[in-house]
Amino acid sequence: MIVDVNVNLSLWPFRRTPCDEPQRLVEALRRGGVTEAWTGTLDGVFHRDLGAANARLAQHCRQWGPGLLVPFGSVNPLLPDWQEELRRCRHQYHMPGIRLHPNYHGYRLDDAPLGQLLQEAARHGLIVQIALRMEDVRVQHQLMPVPDVELAPLAKILEGLPPLRLVLLNVSRANRLEHLRALAALPSVYFDLAMWEGIGGVAALAEVVSTDRILFGSHLPLFPLHSSLLKLRESELSAAQSEAIRSENARRLLPRKS
Amino acid sequence: MLRNAAVVGYGYCRAKNQLQGVTLMAQSCCSVQRRQFLWQSSTAAGALVCRAWAQASQPAAEESPAPCAVWDVHVHLAGLSGTVAQRVARLLRHAQRVGVEKIVLHMGTTLVSHPKPEEFRRHNDEVLEAISVAPERVMGFVYLNPQYQQESLAELDRCVRDGSMLGVKLWIAMVCSRPELDPIARRCAELEVPILQHTFFRAGGNLPDESTPADLATLAARHPQTRFICAHTGVDWERGVRAIRATKNVYAEISGSDPTAGIVEMAVRELGPQRVLYGSDAPGRSFASQLAKVQGADIPESSKRLILGENLRRLLASALQRGKNR
């Protein structure tokens, strides 16, 4: 059983990938043993009509992967009336969380609108996912260089908020270990393994943030699911550690509905 | 500058221990014995690695058995701590967990971008030591700096013609289209060994002496008898594949970039599966993420076998056969 917390529907603007159609994505997830996939939409990275993007996301999750695809809508706190997006995600689509793209949406983690959004999300018990990067900055399209999200201010911001369940997606070696350690010292901050690199990388990440804070994430369809599956195998983890990363940590964060 | 940082902490140790699952052999630069061993072991390697892969497999995941013996053409000692033997042990332990049978090491325990002759000789001594630690699983390419032409040619003879190494590694000492590389390329054609050249199409521009795949294609066009490995395929692989497409003696090597879905599909479509090689750039990259580019690719199993090992075995066949015949 695997809970994949880092999956996207829809298309990346700069290339097609083998699993970027819902049917193939779902097939790949099921073939890989994924039983639950927290799914955002790539439309949410680039579109300004996030209302439509989230509606499609919810509908496609129901249509293509009922019981498998769990929608995480996109919210941009710089857009007017972002509160309505949050309300729809919560009430209309019954999403357990939202996904943020600060670097693509043009704000820093210490900008005031994000603080307001995190306050609201915490108040309503929503999980918040923040994608720190979507691709290697060294090979981005020349018309759209997007720097990584700067993590430095986040720990301090979270200290001033009500308890918030936070998942950092696409954590990489570009992030400073001291920032990761500071965040891991806070309750309910989690890290996915999709972009963490190096031999035995998952075990190395566990030394930084501890095993119980690592979540299985694939970054499908931009990465093949095999990458995170093989990373788990490459690291020397006990069965208990492996199970925690594959599903138990995520299940603690988002218990399965009875 | 990489060079200045790199020389700090340089260590040279000839530790010989028993490693977990790896029988260590006394250090020896005897190329004949080593090449005979490699040649013989390669024929039985498929079964060995399939077994290792199956043992490492876990149920219910998309983890089909390895289709063949996996050889990784791009692995480094730098980026780890400890003695050479300890680094080799760690690399092989992780490689084995995902079914990589053999690794090709290049460069020593530090990173030096513009090595002087005494420095690249030290680097190569470390790789020779690494080979001696586990000759049944470790191969080596000789690290050269074309700024020092005569010394590089002498080192090529020492480590390849008279030694146990099987190819050449060039990094970022000089843009590879320059004529200073011609004597090295000619010598590699004579020795029938490939040149693996680091390449990058870096957003915002390359480092001063860093090569692009287009630079490598220029060099390769001057030396049709030499085989070149385009390391990283430029990292920006959608440009890299195009840059080398028309130059048939250049192979795309897929290491060192994010495991972006589609890289291998494009390389196979544009170059054919015979011109694509698996490499990881471990330890900076995981063996896993780079293997996933192939294992997760929507290509025939026969193409995966070529990329994961058969193509490299074919590229190195002359060098291995020469050792066998000595």
Structural notes for this entry:
The complex is a heterodimer of chains A (258) and B (326). Chain A is an alpha/beta fold and 258 residues long. Chain A contains eleven helices and eight strands. An eight-stranded parallel β-sheet of chain A has the order 1-2-3-4-5-6-7-8, with helices on both faces. In chain A, strand 3 (69-74), helix 4 and strand 4 form a beta-alpha-beta unit. Chain A is globular and about 50 Å long. The mean pLDDT of chain A is 97. Chain B is α/β, with parallel strands linked by helices. Helices cover 44% and strands 11% of the residues of chain B. Chain B has an eight-stranded parallel β-sheet. In chain B, helix 2 (31-43) crosses helix 13, helix 5 (117-133) runs parallel beside helix 6 (149-161) and helix 8 (213-222) packs parallel to helix 9 (237-244). Residues 1-67 of chain B have low confidence and may be disordered. The interface between A and B is large, with 41 and 45 residues.
